[in-house]
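protien #1 (seq + structre)
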Amino acid sequence: MNGKKIRKYAVRGLVGMAGAGLLLLTALYIISGGFMKQYYLEPWSEEYAAQYDDPRISLTARGILAASGHNMQPWIIRLDPSDSMVFYLYADSTRMTKEVDPYARQMMISQGTFLEYVAVAGKKEGWDTKIKLFPDGVYDESDLARSMDTLPVAKITLAKTQPQDTQLYDALYLPDTNREPYQAKELSTSQVSGLESLSGTTGISVTVYQKPGMLSSIGKYALQSAQIEAGVSRVMEESNVIFRASEYQKNQYRYGYSVEGQGASGFMKHILQGMLTIFPSLNSGEAASRNFINYTRTSVDSTPAYAMIITRENSREVQVESGMFYSRLVLTGHTLGLVMQPLSQALEEYPEMNNLYTEFKQAYAPDSGTVQMLFRVGYPTKGTPLSMRRDVMDIIAK
């Protein structure tokens, strides 16, 4: 065979391989749902909330943009039928993550994050939001799920007032969590002060840590807790159940995890989603554990500062107030050019984490306090995609 024929067949072979590769990528894109409309992102548009005349529903549509544990969005809203200015927030007992959060502490924090977003949106829209926590009494801890179903977390009463322009409102529409690497740059004195000054006199405070020794110590706890969690199969399976591998699933469920949380975006996001749809084992079992540990290590290695919310008490009211406080920190952080990411593993209270949890608590809240939140803080290296949100009418009790 002469050289011309060899080159001819080689070119044909390369063209054939390229064609096959293109077909494969196209197939993965279709399997991912790349051509679908992303209904799960609609709540992030300001026009979405504006379509509702009832201010209670309009404010709820802003509230669901708040961060929640495992993005479960565990909220139910009941509109008062006799008073158009009153609505109630209930915790959705069907959305408890009992393996990682057996005492529902994180779930109560998620109630608070929602309430603060509602309050911030209310100021912008000209509503004074009076929030009364546990208006019908606190939960019966021996029958927690039933208590959640019957007792409201909060009663929200609206009163018309003058609209107030606030930077915090604009920050509602920014991603609440950035899991990407952060810049190797210390926070300024004014930024640290801007966050720590939000601490009130109600026994809830925030402290920012950015000295090298503290970064190393806290980072070790974060990585060790991730390694423990990665070895507990029932905990990892609980997370895997709420993983959404495609646009089809994200539109169907509109809560939980997705590949965007692992830094995937653009066309490659759809390729990865297509692969995970065909081969779910790529993100389960030992593979998921390895990915989780490696991802945590990357986060720890690129964290210029950590922060903690510490409380003197650990009542249900304080847990909710801690969530409200965290939302204020997230929104204020955006106005200061900062982003955040919770690192909750060391604070989880299941048996395998107990020793590390106790050690961490003694180190950072030694006077019988509680570390309600541990999170990274820093300057972003790049933007992060918006995460799934449920339709507001699915939050409103029928």
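ok now protien #2
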Amino acid sequence: MTQTKKRVVIVGGGFAGLTLARSLRKVPVEVTLVDRENHHLFQPLLYQVAMAGLSPAEIAMPIRSTLGSQKNARVLLGEAVSADLKAKFLHLADGESIPFDYLVIAAGACTTYFGHDEWERYSLGMKSIDDAVDVRRHILLAFEGAERELDEKAQERLLTFAVIGGGPTGVEVAGTLAELSKTILARDFRRIGKHIPKIVLIEMGDRVLPAFSHKLSASAARELEDMGITLRLSTRVTRIDERGVELDGKELVESASVIWAAGVKPCALASSLGVELDKQGRIIVASDCSLTEYPNVFAIGDIAHTKDGEGKPLPGLAPVAMQAGRAVKANIERDLKKLDRKPFHYVDKGMMATIGRSRAIVQYGKLRLTGFIAWMMWIAVHIWYLIGFRNRVAVMLQWAWLYITFRRGARLITGLPDGALKRTPSLFVQSHDDHRHEPQDHRSV
């Protein structure tokens, strides 16, 4: 058969890839979306699953369901490992090769430990649904262990939680964990006694949320401290082991629960292509999001080094990824019409982060908001961007119930290995190996 429609192959079903696939609905092309997960994950709310606020199904949607009515799109569950950009073939881990006319790499990022991969064994990441469920299980087991522990020092260690990274994820995890542990779990467990759960937020920089203005960053720091969270700023993590976290090579924070929210790196597919990368390993792209040597190959989202009109790298935010997806769609359409491409121009939608109940910050242009109004804006924006009407309604109702009752309904301990409950309480969460698997990212393929 004669090929009449251009074949667009998209690697990754995250914000960038899914936005592009959906926007190509009326464009005369054949779309193939490849992802090693069968669902699109609304990652900004992943910490809510980890903190038992939401269930996984409330922040994820099957990709096939999302694209089910789109006649020019098909979905493949598979892992892309390399691509022959000259011959125009994408290679999957199972040996299949997919031909393309346009290749769009939107494979996202995975957790990085900045050269200390051995730390992964003793810490919990926050990049996938599996990671979030692991964190939830681990935290609940820490309380279960503390409830049975007779040794006060061991109990204190079980109730000390170290969160590494002062960006939005770290701040949101620390704030929600403080609420979960001090208002809900502490009420449900009888023998914890005087050992109030301790949360330590560790950041190498001199302030939390450094992407925000100094005023908003300082406001967030005050809110965190008001919630009883210990801030350790301008502090380097030099070791993570079974004891806890070593700071600046001299101080040890004894903790059985270390949550890593300090950084990400592009998925391995980026380094396999033989193209120019930046220092972080992201694919350097031209102004239209394409590769300079291969104009039919695009990179968008967290895996791409994209610049704004002033030449500054754009942050790895969902609005950037989604706008880049729509820009690539427009340029593919212009190619089909034999028109010149237009450069990608990012429209800044501002930033926001929640710190806890009725606590958030919003930065949009010169607008700066804090407190309850900012929190309501944060809720509205996140519900609006969720995929699927059912998920929007479910999350809205769940949050309303939580706000009124102070109760979280997703406090389930699942996936316990055989023999886990035969250990002594202090060993309940001693090793993360029982619950860990190969690190995954919902957009890495």
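The mean pLDDT is 88.
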